[in-house]
């Protein structure tokens, strides 16, 4: 059963900014003032040339998400994105939200310390000997 999820587009924020949907669901942005919706490559303001609403002051723009993934978008009017007018659509997030409830995993860290002092002294001595012998040969 696919759903249509509503996002309000006002000055200068998407509400809600994060939506969690399932593959096949549609997001509908309702424009209340002059903005737009452009897909971005990540949570930055770099536009991805896939889908966008173009500039709208009223009306709606819809986008159906067929595949699971994390889809970022932003408003590119003026410096709205730089001011934080961004959103994200998590598709398939309902199952990952369940996964987040699993107990935290513990990570063990093994620290191995290796003394290199003897090796370093050998390198220094060898280099000194090499320079010395080269100098002798040169003379
Ligand atoms: Cu805007």
From TrEMBL:
Q: Which Pfam family is one of this chain's hits? A: Copper-bind
Q: Which InterPro entries match?
A: BlueCu_1, BlueCu_1_BS, Cupredoxin
Annotated keywords: Copper, Electron transport, Metal-binding, Transport
What's the protein here called?
Blue (type 1) copper domain-containing protein
Instruction: Domain (Blue (type 1) copper): give its ranges.
Output: 13-91
Please give the Gene Ontology molecular function terms for this protein.
copper ion binding; electron transfer activity
Q: Which domain of life is it from?
A: Eukaryota
Q: Which organism is it from?
A: Clydaea vesicula
């Amino acid at each position: 059963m696919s759903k249509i999820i509503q996002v309000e587009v006002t000055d200068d924020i998407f509400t809600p900014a994060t939506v969690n949907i399932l593959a096949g669901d549609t997001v509908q942005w309702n424009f209340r003032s002059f903005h737009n919706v452009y897909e971005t490559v990540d949570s930055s303001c770099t536009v991805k040339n896939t889908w966008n609403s173009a500039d709208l002051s009223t009306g709606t723009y819809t986008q159906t998400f067929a595949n699971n993934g994390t889809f970022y978008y932003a408003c590119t009017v003026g410096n709205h994105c730089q001011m934080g007018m961004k959103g994200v659509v998590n598709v398939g997030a309902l199952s990952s939200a369940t996964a987040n409830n699993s107990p935290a995993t513990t990570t063990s860290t093994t620290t191995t310390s290796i003394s290199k002092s003897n090796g370093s002294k050998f390198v220094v001595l060898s280099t000194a000997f090499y320079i010395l012998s080269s100098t002798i040969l040169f003379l």
